[in-house]
Amino acid sequence: MKRFWKDVAVVTSADGHAITLDGRPVRTPGRLPLAMPHAALAEAIADEWRAVTEKIDPRAMPLTGLANVAIERIAADPLPFIANLAAYAESDLLCYRAEAPEALVARQAAAWDPLIDWAQRRYDIHVEVVSGIIHRAQPPQTLSRLADALAARSAYALAGLSPIVTITGSLIAALALIEGAADADTVWRAAQVDEDWQVEKWGDDDLAIATRTAHRADFDAGVRFLGLLAIVGT
Q: H/E/C letters for each residue in 95-160?
């Protein structure tokens, strides 16, 4: 769609902070009003619309995309979305360690053990950690309590968490971020331990660099989205 508007504004009402184009409210792809619960988030989304030059590029508007997810996919029925994110606890990245070499084992432990320890204290759970890739089931109580931690969050918080969980492969790391137990760079570095090791040993290539750059952009968009909700620092 080409740009057809001149003015972008945020209009505040009892229903929230809505983005308008030439006075007309922006709607999601499903025709629901694009209205935010926080003014800062609405202004940031409005800036994405202001930045459009000739044609809309969804990749350049990640906050708008996450808001659409919150409004259309989560708000009306959050349970399926919560279940999809909670499933990452069953095979959390942090729980599967290399058997060798020792240097990689130590690097994983240094990055991942503090996050595991935090989760066990925070949620009063036990987290199974295994060497190798053979699946080991987590205790049912662990899965239940981590799912409950998600269920306590708003549709907008869940939308912001989604790229962080899916890109890192770790629900525990994402929860540590949203609860202030780890900052964004710490979580990103933890998620990249294995990949960084491979790059150090075998080098990088253009496709891998492009993929990692795209993933980091999506990760950062989720972090910024949460920050604009005043949930995590930016």
A: HEECCCCHHHHHHHHHHHHHHHHHHHHHHCCCCCCEECCCCCCCCHHHHHHHHHHHHCCCHHHHHH
Closest to 221 measured CA to CA, from 147, 162, 175, 169: 162
Torsion angles phi and psi, residue 21, rounded to 5: -115, 115
Beta strand pairing call for 35-36 and 130-131: unpaired
Task: Give the pLDDT band of residue 234 (cuts 50, 70, 90).
Answer: very low
As a whole number of angstroms, the distance between CA 59 and CA 148 comes to 31
What's the pTM value of the predicted model, to 2 decimals?
0.94
* Confidence tier at 232 by pLDDT (50, 70, 90): low
Compute CA 165 distance to the chain's CA centroid, rounded to the nearest angstrom: 5
Tokens, residue 223: 């972090």
Paired sense of beta strands 96-97 and 130-131, if any: parallel
